[in-house]
Amino acid sequence: MARFVLRVLNPKHVVFQGEVSSVFLPGDCGEFELLAYHVPIVSLLKEGEIVVDWKTRIPIKRGMVRFSGDECVVLLEEQAQPGKQNAGHAEQKTRE
Questions:
Q1: CATH code at 70?
Q2: CA angle at residue 65 from 94 to 56, to 5 degrees?
Q3: Measured between alpha carbons, how far is 89 from 68 in angstroms, rounded to an integer?
């Protein structure tokens, strides 16, 4: 399956970065999925979860996404999780 580069960022750190096959996003008008070779898109994101390759879940408060040229960049505000200070950051560190 074709892959593309996904970068999920918040103002303080990189939450996720890597090559993926798909990403589900909570768009302001409904959920949608991005796959490689998707047409360019810019969208606002609402509260929900980003799901990467049906495996990694990243809870968000709100954000925005830009997909162009097989590169997807998500800028977000993470949701606070009880008992977890920076869940997304911890997930990225385990991949390194």
A1: 2.60.15.10
A2: 30
A3: 25
Contact predicate 48/26, CB 8 Å: yes
**Residue 93: is its pLDDT beyond 60?**
no
Q: What is the pTM of this model?
A: 0.79
Number of folded domains in the chain?
A: 1
* Three-class HEC string of 4-58: EEEEEECCCCEEEEEEECEEEEEECCEEEEEECCCCCEEEEECCEEEEECCCEEE
Structural domain that includes position 86:
4-95
Task: Write out pLDDT tens, residues 22-66.
Answer: 999 999 999 999 999 999 999 999 999 999 999 999 999 999 999
Task: Return d(Cα 32, Cα 26) in angstroms, integer.
Answer: 7
